[in-house]
Amino acid sequence: MAQQNQIKHIAIAGNIGAGKTTLTKILAKHFNWSPHFEDVENNPYLNDFYNDMHRWSFNLQIFFLNSRLKQLVDIQKGNQAVIQDRTIYEDAYIFAPNLHEMGLMSKRDFENYKNFFETLKGMVNPPDLLIYLKASVPTLVGQIQKRGREYEENIRLDYLKRLNEYYNNWLDKYEDGKMIVIDVDKLNYADNKEDLATVINMITAEVNGLF
Question: What is the DSSP string of 94-124?
């Protein structure tokens, strides 16, 4: 009985526009997992951040850190399989250091943020399975334009490119658990049924091996 109640945490990582939310919805329905989404609609900092990144970068990152920590606490308390749209690690290893390196987050704020994250990291478990959606900048731009979120209109190409570099560097060294890499440039799971079947088969093989 304990085996059946074992927490199963699947997380989807990927750059802005990679298709995390779409895949989260598809997999939640297919595998009967409980979806946990990134709350972009009720984020009080996103509009301000894209208009003035330097001023609002620290506030935005703290908001994300808090909301994702709350998700992880809820996942650990629960007893059902959960699929999470974006991970707590992406904020700390991708977005915050990129903002700092671009001069959009001060050294003082970045050090404060990094130390806070390290404290929190010891309180939560990594996902059982990480699914990384790897996508080129043209693919990301196409999908961002397709969904038409107003606050994303000002995203710079160099910002997306730098984020991709951080993602690839992070995941090249990822050792916290099992990982699947899905090449979004080649697998259009949102519009192509054969591509979707390929993705589901990849994940099914890993999930059966894990649980």
Answer: IIHHHHHHTTSS-HHHHHHHHHHHHHHHTTS
